[in-house]
Automatic annotation (TrEMBL):
Protein name in the entry: Non-homologous end-joining DNA ligase
Organism classification: Bacteria, Pseudomonadati, Bacteroidota, Flavobacteriia, Flavobacteriales
Species this chain originates from: Christiangramia oceanisediminis
Gene3D superfamilies: DNA primase, PRIM domain
Coiled-coil residues: none
Keywords: Ligase
Source taxon at top rank: Bacteria
One of the record's GO molecular function terms: DNA ligase (ATP) activity
Gene this protein is translated from: ligD
Keyword Metal-binding: no
Ranges where the DNA ligase D polymerase domain occurs: 28-282
UniProt cross-references to SUPFAM superfamilies, sorted A to Z: Prim-pol domain
Keyword flag Ligase: yes
NCBIfam families per record: ligD_pol
EC code(s) of this entry: 6.5.1.1
């Protein structure tokens, strides 16, 4: 099944809409396209201006996937693209998804899950997001919730930072700090690493910064590796390649207390019911951007005090 849809002045040709992408759930490529068409107004403010990596599943989520950074030559001219030099030489021509037509086109290209940079194309070396990725152990999502509130105590109450939450749609949770573009990636990553090390020392039984799984035991992994140039993170409201089509969903701190909340609570089938009764919790995230300088001083004092006490 194929058809053409028009968004503003742009016509998008859609194909194979009846191909099943989520076999157990029965969701088709058409369902994926419809979802991204409908979520566009809410999702676009969180991804526009950011280089995008496509995770594509041409034959559905149970078949081969591939990560694609470079926009293929056959992508239409109306899709915005930006070329960035690679350290090893050459360049990569990234998609910049600024409109509904592009988002729908990518879904039609079997891009189930778009990932985005933590910086924007106009200042690629200056991140405007800092992410703490909470990767659970075997203990599951309850341990993630507990850790999130402990991390909130440090970041919000002691360091004075705004922290926004997002279920990943997979297993964990992202804690996101919106930043003024005053810092380099190295500075942001160093801060995130220092904060994570401090948390690891404060909660040694439940949190770890060990990258190797065999060293984590049953502790939650504090992953801050995404805070680096050209690294990506799952986009807010992106669909994950998991049966049921769960969605990476911004939530607020009150929701995190709900006993039945999981990383996969929201899907392409129930997300709009949620958004019909509740605004996007990240709607005003841009109004809360901060400089890290004061928080860095406070963190260094906490680390120094901890060293003295031990």
């Amino acid at each position: 099944m194929s058809e053409k849809r028009t968004y503003g002045k742009t016509e998008v040709e859609l194909s194979n809409l009846d191909k099943v992408f989520f076999p157990d759930s029965g969701f088709t490529k058409g369902d994926l396209v419809d979802y991204y068409e409908k979520i566009a107004d809410i999702m676009l403010p969180h991804i526009e201006g950011r280089p995008l990596t496509m995770i594509r599943f041409p034959n559905g989520i149970e078949d081969k996937r591939f990560f694609q950074k470079d926009a293929p030559d056959y992508f239409p001219e109306w899709i915005e693209k930006r070329s960035f030099d690679k350290k090893e030489g050459g360049s990569t021509n990234y998609v910049i998804c600024n409109d509904q037509a592009t988002l729908v086109y990518l879904a039609n290209q079997a891009c189930v899950t778009p990932h985005i940079w933590l910086s924007r194309q106009d200042q690629p070396d200056k991140p405007d997001r800092m992410i703490f990725d909470l990767d659970p152990s075997k203990k599951g999502f309850d341990a993630v919730k507990e850790a999130a509130f402990s991390i909130r105590e440090l970041l919000v109450e002691e360091l004075g930072l705004p922290v926004f939450l997002m279920t990943t749609g997979s297993r964990g949770l992202h804690l996101v700090v919106p930043l003024k573009r005053d810092h380099s990636f190295d500075e942001v990553r160093e801060f995130a690493q220092q904060a994570s090390k401090y948390l690891e020392q404060k909660y040694p039984e439940t949190m770890t910064t060990a990258a190797r799984k065999e060293k984590r035991e049953d502790r939650l992994f504090l992953d801050v590796a995404r805070n680096a140039s050209a690294q990506t993170s799952v986009a807010p409201y992106a669909v994950r390649p998991i049966e049921g089509a769960p969605v990476a969903t911004p939530i607020d701190w009150v929701e995190l207390k709900k006993p039945d909340l999981s990383a996969q609570s929201y899907t392409i089938k129930n997300i709009f019911r949620r958004l019909g009764s509740k605004d996007d919790p990240w709607k005003d995230i841009e109004k809360h951007k901060v400089n890290l300088s004061e928080a860095k001083k406070k963190l260094e004092k906490l680390i120094e005090k901890t060293s003295e006490d031990t």
